[in-house]
Amino acid sequence: MRPSCRRSANKPIQAMAFVESGAVERFGWARAHRAFLRSHSGEKAPCRDGAGLARQGRVGRDDLECGTHAPRLQGTIEELVREGKTRPRPSNNCSGKHSGFLTTAVQYGEPTRGYIKYDHPVQRRLREVMSDLCGADANAFPYGIDGCGIPSLATPLKSLARAMASMAEPSRLSNKHAEAAGRIRAAMQRPSLS
Fold first, then answer.
1. DSSP states of the chain as a string?
2. pLDDT value of position 71
3. Residue 65 half-sphere exposure toward CB, CA atoms < 13 A
4. Residues 48-63: pLDDT tens digits?
5. Mean pLDDT, to the nearest integer, of 26-43?
6. 15 and 167 in contact (C-beta within 8 Å)?
7. In 10 A of CB 70, how many CB atoms?
8. How far apart are CA 6 and CA 59, in angstroms?
9. Distances (CA, A) of 105 to 17, 121, 143, 153
10. For residues 162-169, average pLDDT
11. In the predicted structure, residue 146 carries a pLDDT above the cut 80
């Protein structure tokens, strides 16, 4: 089966390394699970969440390497034009995930600059988790660069399905992975952020 990049479909898997790091407890990220997992449209509430999460992780908006994009709602775009404002970095629909990446780097005492690079420890941990969940060496997967700047692994659908199934029924996983998967499942079942 030909591999393909799954982009945001990988967010639950990408959240595993963040949850396992202990950063949730250290920085008091009460809503972080949901913000990490959620793509948003660049509107005000999710952008505030991304900025707040970055601050809680002792990093700033300018540390986010995801870039910006315009919000999806025409009314918000018009409001920005009227006010002569530009969008801050948390307007990227992956800002929650990027805040989590940064905070994980802070948790482990790693450099935050370049956290989106393939060889950065943050990205290496993501491949380790993916390898464990899908039962294949994720380091061998080809990759491209996602719209938010991170490496997007070209994962065979069968491997991704196994990874998602492992998160849904984690009995074959290590205790650490199983606990993180349970927390992520619970976060996904909560009502969306407002």
1. ---EE-GGGGHHHHHHHHHHTTHHHHHT-TTHHHHHH----S-HHHHHHHHHHHHHTT--GGG--S-----S-HHHHHHHHHHT----GGGSTTHHHHHHHHHHHHHTT---TTTTSTTSHHHHHHHHHHHHHHTS-GGGS-EEE-TTSSEEEEE-HHHHHHHHHHHHSGGGS-HHHHHHHHHHHHHHHSPPP-
2. 64
3. 14
4. 444 455 555 566 667 8
5. 58
6. no
7. 14
8. 28
9. 11, 8, 22, 20
10. 94
11. yes
Q: CA torsion 120→9→64→115, rounded to 10°?
A: 0
Q: Which two tokens stand for residue 8?
A: 């945001």
d(CA 178, CA 154): 24
- The structure's pTM equals 0.79
Is 89:45 a contact under the CB 8 Å cutoff? Answer: no
Q: Bridge partners of 151? A: 145
